[in-house]
Design brief:
This protein has about 350 residues and is of the alpha/beta class. Helix content is about 45%, strand content about 15%. The protein has eleven helices and eleven strands. The protein has helices at about 1-20, 40-45, 65-70, 90, 115-135, 145-160, 175-185, 225-235, 235-245, 255-270, 315-340; strands at about 30, 55-60, 80-85, 95-100, 140, 170, 200, 205-210, 275-285, 290-300, 300-305. Strand 9 (about 275-285) and strand 10 form a beta hairpin. Helix 2 (about 40-45) packs across helix 10 and helix 6 (about 145-160) crosses helix 11 (about 315-340). Residues about 1-20 have low confidence and may be disordered. The structure holds nicotinamide-adenine-dinucleotide and (2S)-2-hydroxybutanedioic acid.
Length: about 350
């Protein structure tokens, strides 16, 4: 009898770990661009998420194969592939979270802004479809240039009359993931305990890690030169990967990890978890520009609170000032594209 009770308890525990725990609401997640370099590992990670019951994998082609493959994993989410525009509406219907990594990646020598010409139109048309088929969903925008694609998404939804600024979120989690990794290495602290806020945007100098607010404090005090090097490495992390991949794209695996962390955070917020705080690039009034990344609290309606920047040291204050012209220009470029100007 005791053995049976123990076995039952173990089964329940194992099922819970795979997402069969009772009390977790059914949630549909759609990945747009699911057959791509980010899309495939991200779809795998979302299939493993305990918060997902239905996973819709959409791309212009290739998704039936990805969906068949991922669907064999013995976790809770039911997986379905959707290919081509005429299946997009079905993929989106009922989605609670839509993750968008659709679009072209950089090659060496390119800036993220060089992707605007192609990706702006892709994001606009996908977000239009979201506005029509799942206007209540939280949008997680990964496609670059994020500094412009998030304003494009906002303006596109505004035009459709369904914009809710709490539901449009630019994914900057990879910057936080990088800052944590580089800081832990240099500071000689346990990476699993590290937190570093990263604010601003998601391109070069607009990425500003706030190492003065990093926890835990380092074993040995880091010099100004160390902090400068850590800041620059975080700002250039994407380029480091683009160069190492030598023409075969940009970060995909670390981005899939970061994207899954962020989507899970959105789902936990939707599910009523009271303590979900992540950095995200959102409509914001904490600085002089209308979109900005800082720590936000995620809740049942998406972004429930936007936190200020805290105390900045002189180095960080100078970084904040320096990013503004580029960030403002990228925002305006996105807004005027979506307005059709
Ligand atoms: N936010 C970030 O931190 C971050 C990090 C890494 C990459 N990115 C960006 O993510 C994007 C994707 O990168 P990738 O490496 O996965 O590229 P990829 O080329 O490997 O994959 C992109 C996928 O998008 C699909 N796609 C293109 N147009 C589409 C449309 N209209 N509808 C649906 N799917 C469409 C393609 O078919 C392809 O499968 C790039 O813009 C890249 O710069 C952002
Ligand atoms: O650098 C890129 O082009 C991709 C992405 O934005 C990244 O930060 O890795």
């Amino acid at each position: 009898m005791q053995a049976l009770a123990r076995a039952t308890k173990e089964l329940v525990r194992a099922a819970g770990a795979r997402g069969f725990a009772s009390g977790v609401p059914d949630r549909k997640v759609a990945v747009l661009g699911a057959a791509g370099g980010i899309g495939q590992p991200l779809s795998l990670l979302m299939k493993l998420s305990p918060y997902v019951s239905e996973l819709a994998l959409y791309d212009i082609a290739g998704t039936p194969g990805v969906a068949a493959d991922v669907s064999h994993i013995n976790s809770k989410a039911q997986v379905k592939g959707y290919a081509g525009e005429d299946q997009l509406g079905e993929a989106l219907k009922g989605a609670h979270v839509v993750i968008i990594p659709a679009g072209v990646p950089r090659k060496p020598g390119m800036t993220r802004d060089d992707l605007f010409k192609i990706n702006a139109g892709i994001v606009r048309s996908l977000v239009e479809a979201c506005g029509k088929h799942c206007p209540e969903a939280l949008l997680n925008i990964i496609s670059n240039p994020v500094n412009s694609t998030v304003p494009i998404a906002a303006e596109t939804l505004k035009k459709l009359g369904v914009y809710d600024e709490k539901r449009v979120l630019g994914v900057t989690t990879l910057d936080v993931v990088r800052a944590k990794t580089f800081y832990a290495e240099k500071a000689g602290v346990d990476v699993s305990k590290v937190d570093v806020p990263v604010v601003g945007g998601h391109a070069g100098v607009t990425i500003l890690p706030l190492f003065s607010q990093a926890v835990p404090t380092p074993n040995l005090k880091l010099s100004d030169a160390d902090i400068d090097a850590l800041t620059k490495r975080t700002q250039d992390g994407g380029t480091e990967v683009v160069q190492a991949k030598a023409g075969k794209g940009s970060a995909t695996l670390s981005m899939a990890y970061a994207g899954a962390l962020f989507a899970d955070a959105c789902l936990r917020g939707l599910n009523g978890d009271p303590d979900v705080i992540e950095c995200s690039y959102v409509a914001s009034s904490i600085t002089e520009v209308p979109f900005f990344s800082s720590k936000v609290k995620l809740g049942k309606n998406g972004v429930e609170q936007i936190f200020g920047l805290g105390t900045l040291n002189d180095y960080e204050a100078a970084g904040l000032k320096a990013m503004m012209p580029e960030l403002r220009a990228s925002i305006e470029k996105g807004l005027s594209f979506a307005k059709g100007e």
